[in-house]
Amino acid sequence: MDQLSVMENEVPIEEPPGTWHPPHPWEDVPPAQWHDWRWQMSHRLDTVEQLAQVINLTPAEVAGLSAPDHFRVQVTPYFASLMDPDDPSCPIRQQIIPTDRELVPYDAEMSDSLNEDAHSPVPGLVHRYPDRVLMLVTTQCASYCRFCTRSRIVGDPHARFGRRDYDAQIDYIAHTPQVRDVLISGGDPLTLAPRILEDLLRRLRAIPHVEIIRIGSRVPVFLPQRITPEFVGMLQQFHPLWMNIHFNHPKEITPEVSAALTLLANAGIPLGSQTVLLAGVNDCPNVIKDLVHKLVRNRVRPYYMYQCDLVHGAGHFRTPVAVGLNIVEALRGHTSGYAVPTYVIDAPGGGGKIPIMPNYVLSQSLDRVVLRNYEGFISAYTQSDTYARHDPHTCRSCQQHLMNSGEAGQEGVLGLLNGHQLAIAPEGFERTHQRLTRVDWAPVKADLIGPAPELAALMINDYV
Ligand code: SF4
Fold first, then answer.
1. Other CB atoms within 10 A of residue 97 CB
2. Is the CATH number of domain 1-355 3.40.50.720?
3. β-strand partners of 282
4. Does the beta carbon of 141 sit less than 6 angstroms from any atom of ligand 1?
5. What's the DSSP call for residue 29?
6. 346: Cβ below 6 Å to ligand 1?
């Protein structure tokens, strides 16, 4: 069994002292079982009847849960216990309980909005950026988010990655020396059987050019019980190992989650968070501020705040970009820089993460740059007039990097600044702008046989 298998030698967490009992309706469950991740995983809720014992379901939620072919619903008892039973706008509840709004399609939705499939040289491996890859190792999660970017593959119990996929992924990485950073994600890699995860980490660590390994997970949020000393001990063999955890609301940071984060941080695993901006859940500057403050207190660095992707079923979670900019305005300068995540849009069509921020540079001349701060204070920074400019053509480091640079086409704007390219042109640009030196309008109009019809149309339009 690949998933959820029990790690040998692991000791269930002991019953806490006192008379504490799990929350309703699990008050009869022995606390030791409640704190055992295996019990949590095997008692996940997925039916209307089970969920109706925990919250007062609305007709919209029942419709969402009853819809045929809806994205998988499954939630750990622990995370379900955080839901407000009487408030359908509860930020925890909205993330995991579908409503009929999920069934409403919208014009911009895409099944693979990040164009990951086109960047997959082998199944489950996404090589989008020059020096790093995303390794999808499972389609399973501890609970399922209604706005999941990978809902096209996640949650299907029959579509799993297996040994053959892992072999192909690792083989690709081993034969691609430009890859220095591997992000293991899915699904949620922390739901893999520990021996499988350990084996993957060991094989990656054996590749000399893989400098860092990152894990993307929501298990510390959905199933903090999984983060045991034994599990963390296994992870810490593979340093430098980083972990990015998906947090969306301050309510998610409970004492159990804090304990899990402490274990991870004490094991020397640098922790980051990523947050999806969700209408009605966290589209409030003060909610995000509370969240990032709680994260920093728990030694988690807010890393990214994502604009919601154009995913099927997530239309009602989308906010205007202005909402995200407003949140950044409310954070930058108003709190520690460590607590301010980078707001990004993962560009539809596979453009990758594009940072979005308010304009802080108001103007500039050769002598001065005019800047504004978070309070609206405007000042001028005097530029150096003695700067011996850095020349990438003579700089040894730049020349070395140029020789080692991987695939063409990824230098981007930096290539323009360094003089390696004159322009970046969109597809079709050259053809469009290959004007004939002299177009005799009349023959073109009379006889469209000569040039290709498209070009002829262009010329006609151009000259009319
Ligand atoms: S935990 Fe991540 S992969 Fe799993 S459903 Fe949520 S967003 Fe998707």
1. 26
2. no
3. none
4. yes
5. S
6. no
Instruction: Name the closest-CA residue to atom 1, ligand 1.
Output: 218
Distances in whole angstroms, Cα of residue 88 to Cα of each of 58, 85, 256: 7, 8, 24
H helix or E strand, kind and range, residue 342: strand 342-347
285-297 vs 321-331: helix crossing angle, rounded to 10? 50
Residue 37, ligand 1, Cβ within 6 A: no
Question: What single-letter DSSP state applies at residue 332?
Answer: B
Half-sphere exposure of 167 (CA within 13 A, CB side): 3
Tokens of 425: 């042109």
pLDDT tens for 30-47 read 999 999 999 999 999 999
Ligand 1 center to residue 410 CA distance, Å?
Answer: 29
Write down the pTM of the prediction.
0.88
Is the torsion defined by CA of 164, 168, 174, 175 positive or negative? positive
Give the Å distance between the CA of 314 and the centre of ligand 1.
13
Q: Please indicate whether residue 438 or residue 286 has the higher confidence score (pLDDT).
A: 286
Q: How far apart are CA 378 and CA 372, in angstroms?
A: 4
* Residues 448, 163: Cα–Cα separation, whole Å: 58
Atom of ligand 1 nearest to the CA of 187: 3
Give distance in angstroms: CA of 214 to centre of ligand 1: 16
At 302, list the tokens: 């807010």
- Rounded Cα distance, 79 and 4, in Å: 17
Edge-first strand listing for the sheet containing 378-382: 361-364, 368-372, 378-382
The beta strands (E) that lie in 139-211 are given as: 181-185
pLDDT tens digits, one per residue of 374-398: 999 999 999 999 999 999 889 999 8
Q: Scanning the structure block, which residue is given the tokens 């389609």?
A: 139
Distance CA 89, CA 86 (A): 9
Give yes or no for residue 147 CB within 6 A of ligand 1: no
Please report, for the chain, the start and end positions of each structural domain, with discontinuous segments joined by +. 1-355, 430-463
Is 13 within 8 Å of 256 (Cβ atoms)? no
**Dist CA 191 CA 157 (whole Å):** 13
Q: How many C-beta atoms lie closer than 10 Å to residue 103's C-beta?
A: 17
Q: Quote the CA–CA distance of 277 and 309 in Å, as a whole number.
A: 10
- Whole-angstrom distance, CA of residue 142 vs CA of residue 158: 16
Residues marked active site are found at 128-129, 132, 141, 145, 148, 150, 309, 346, 353
Q: What is the distance between the alpha carbons of residues 61 and 58, in angstroms, rounded to a whole number?
A: 5
